[in-house]
Structure formats: C-alpha cells, structure tokens
Amino acid sequence: MSLPRISIKALGVVTTALATFSAIPAAQAQSPLAGGAPNGTGLAPAVRVSSPIGTYNLQNSSVPPLPHPEAIFDDPWGWNTWLREHGVAILLDTTNEFAGAITSPTKGLGLRQGSSNAGQYGFENDIDWEKLAGIRGFSTHAVFVGRYGIPASRMFGDNLNPSQEIYGGGGNVVVHLVYIYGEETLFNGHLDIAAGRIPLLTDFSSNPLYCNFMNNAFCGNPKASSDNTSHSSYPDSNWAARVRVRPSQYTYIQAGVYFNTMGIYGVKQMRTGFKWNGADINGEAAPVEAGWEPIFGKDKLPGHYKIGGIVDTAPHPDVLYDINDNYWAVTGQARKVHNNSWSAYALADQMIMRHKGNGPDAGITLLGVFYNNSPVTQTRERQYSIGVLDRGFWKSRPLDAWGVNFSYIQVSKKVKTAQEIQQSLGYQTLLNGSFFPQTNGMVIEAMYQIRVWRGITFAPDFQYFIRPGAQQGLKDAATLGFKSHIEIF
Q: To which H or E segment does residue 98 belong?
C-alpha cells in the first residue's frame, strides 16, 4: 500500500498542462514541475512543496490556487466556474492499474502466473475560506477514496515492489477518509501551517512526478519510506501538525509531528478512516526536510532537490533479537522492542532539456532517489532509484510522455540472518512471508503515457523484476499492463 505516492496516493496544486499522472487525484496550477501531468485528488501538499514563491498568483487570495486538473466535464452549465469564484473546488476521478505476468513463476512454491486489476475512485474537496468567508490565508482540504484489487506481483512471490501501487489501506469500504486538515498561509507564502488528519508521506519524501509510474517502488513515494508504519502513507493518516518556512524564493524547510496510530493499515482501527480518538496513539514521528528548487538558464529548467530525516518514538520489533538478546527465531521468545527508529533520504529531479513550443512541462527530466532506514527495525535498509521522464517530445502530441525508472532495494543483513536461521530450522515460510532469505532485488519499469482526450490518459506499462522480493531463489519475472486515469470533473 502506499505512495504516491498513492495513489490517489499519495498526495492542492499540481501542474500545468498535464497529461495524467497518477492514481493520486490532484490539482492543477501553473507551476514549474518538470514533466508534470494532469493528476487527481490528493496531490496538493506534494505540489505546494514543489512550487517556489512567485510561481502562482496570490493577488486574488492569500491561499495558493485550488486544484484544477484537466477534466472530461470541465465546466458544465458554468457550475465549476461559479464554485471556484467562491473558493470551492470539487474533483472526482478514477484510476485503474492492470498487470499480468508474461513469465512463468518459480515451481514448487504454490506460485502462479496470473494477472490482476487494482483501482481507486477518489473525491476531493478544497475550500479557500478567504474567498468564501473572508478568513485570510485559510483553506481546508479533504480526500475520500474507495479501493479494490491486489498487485499481480504477489502471485510470483514479490513482496517488496508491488506491480500496482494503488491497492490496500482502503479498508474494503465504499468510502474511506484519506485526510482532512486545515492550512494557513501567511506572509505571501513564506510561512505555511497545517494541522488535522494528514499522511506524513504526503508532505515528506514525496514528488508528484513519481506517479507517472505504476510500480509501488516509485509511486507515490520511494517504497522504503513506508517500511516504517509510523510514517503514515496514503490512503491513511494521523493526527498531525506541519510547519513550512520559505526563507527565499527557491528554498524551504519544513518539519512536523505525526502521532502514530497502532494498526494504522488494518481494518480493526482504520477501516473507514473516521476513527479519530487518541486511544491507539503509541508514539510520534518527527520529520524534517529542506529543499532547493532552482530554475536554470534561459530555458528556465526547473529542478527540485530535497534532503530529510525522520525519527520516531513508536514501538518497533527488532528484526533479529528477542527480549533477552538471543535470536527470536531460535528461542521463540517475544522480540525486543525499540521505541525509536529513523530514516534519512535525498531526492532530486532536474529538467535537462526543453522541447520548446510544446508547453511548460515539455522536456526531459532526470529523477534520483536515495533512502536509508534503520537496519534494526526495518526490512529495506536502502533504496536507490534513477529514472528519466520525457514529456512533449512529439510535437503533434505535446501531452504524451514516456519514462523509464530503475530501483534497487538492499534488505537489512539482520533480516537476512533471521530468515537464514528460520530456514535452517525448517520453516516453510520465513519472516516477511518470504520463501528464501532476502538480500537485494531490482525492478525496471518502462511506460508510454497517452493523452487520449481531455481528462483521460492511458499508459501501457512493462515491468521486469530481478530477484523478486529480493529472493535469490525466485526466477526473474516480467509483467505487461497499463495505467489509466480519468478525471471526471
């Protein structure tokens, strides 16, 4: 689950001329997001982080522009224009992700060659209360989703890089609350404060560009980011508060506190997302992120560079040792609990060339990720990703895009040791539901995104898994599929 970025994952204002982006319904404003695409609900926070001061107009309101993606029903009978003039934005979209294995799985493990579809419909409401009621700088944001399906990669044994990111966490209900929060923008965008029910990974270690891709290694956040359950991920949220300061036009620093909820992705406590009491809070996560968003040269090539870290006080079971500092896989004793964990990351994207005359997002953008987790409490110790996204290369189809992304996952050596002990003792299923000790694995994704019509995109997708689930004993696998997004209004 992601997420995603996810998704709607993942993630008020997204990009320009768009051609869709993700399973994250999102927003649209004129911002210099390289390779941006029409998105859907839930991308607002990630986009605001990536929108330097001066890239949107605050003259009509102190609130940054409300999301306004390209849609099938853009303004029927003028209702959309009327609502937005009064500070109200309503979005409805749907995303589907289909993948099917084109290779046979490893024999003798009960795996199979199959396909599946995962999807989501999303509803977003954003309100500029300065326009609606004269409350200067104040806005509110809410997203609701319904989800279905599972990733096909589970069928051939990959439990680290789901082939479809838009699954899970939605409680298998018709309406699931993703987030609802208030936001105050002050000093012409130099200070922004948000509080309410917010997913941590919607604001931190996120990038709207990632959800041009479908695999959960990329969309809507680097997958290693959600290894730690105190790092709440779309479509689930925590009570939280976040402050963002922009000391200059192209820099920002943000920090927050997110109150961890036990069982955040389970149906017992979080099935609908509407259980808001604090009885299940068992710790806090405190992220900090600094960003630089330069625009280079006469072609105004945008870049986004982020570094950050997260510490938390939530309880985490040790991956290797029990309460007496012996191997839990041998003793069967309860695992040692650590009331802390940490993560650190660096993310970057940079447009390196523009396709002139094909729109503000037309160009080639490079993407890079490094993520590092505590090896004592997390499965994925490190993740490295590198990719390229090219939008508007074809003059007659300026909103089409192609992209290739590669991700490498390094599993904690302590996880591997625990699994090797289990294997030596004859366990049929190992820690994390694996068949073999986990070491490292890779996934490559290639997609071509087609803007079919206003508000509709369709992206054929190919993925190749090297050591699925970071398991040396599993055959490499490949999938074919597609990702579609329809922004209804």
A: strand 88-101
Return d(Cα 310, Cα 256) in angstroms, integer. Answer: 10
Structure tokens at 49: 């982080």
Question: Contact, 8 vs 27, CB < 8 A?
Answer: no
Closest CA to 217 of 412, 11, 482, 443: 443
417 in Cβ contact with 403 (< 8 Å): no
Distance CA 61, CA 161 (A): 42
Where do the DSSP E strands lie in 191-315?
191-198, 238-248, 251-261, 281-292, 295-296, 301-312
Residue 487 is given by DSSP the state E
What would you measure as the largest C-alpha separation in the chain, in angstroms?
69
Q: What is the C-alpha to C-alpha distance for residues 22 and 8, in angstroms, rounded to an integer?
A: 7
Q: What 3-state DSSP class applies to 211?
A: helix
- What tens digit of pLDDT does each residue of 59-98 get? 678 898 888 889 999 898 999 999 999 999 999 999 999 9
| ∠ CA 397-402-404, rounded to 5° | 175
Whole-model pTM over 0.85: yes
Letter for the amino acid at 80?
N
Instruction: Mark the ranges of the chain whose per-residue pLDDT is less than 50.
Output: 1-39
Looking at residue 163, its amino acid is S
CB 427 within 8 A of CB 328: no
Number of residues that this document lists for the chain: 489
- CA dihedral of residues 421, 422, 426, 428 (deg, nearest 10): -150
* Residue 28 main-chain phi, psi, to 5 deg: -135, 135
- Integer Cα distance of 71 and 94 in angstroms: 11
Q: Are 56 and 31 in contact (CB under 8 A)?
A: yes
Q: Are β-strands 191-198 and 176-186 bridged in parallel, bridged antiparallel, or unpaired?
A: antiparallel
The owner of tokens 């030596």 is 424
> What is the pLDDT, as a whole number, of residue 5?
31
Contact at 8 Å (CB) between 220 and 22? yes
Question: H or E element: which one contains 130?
Answer: helix 129-133
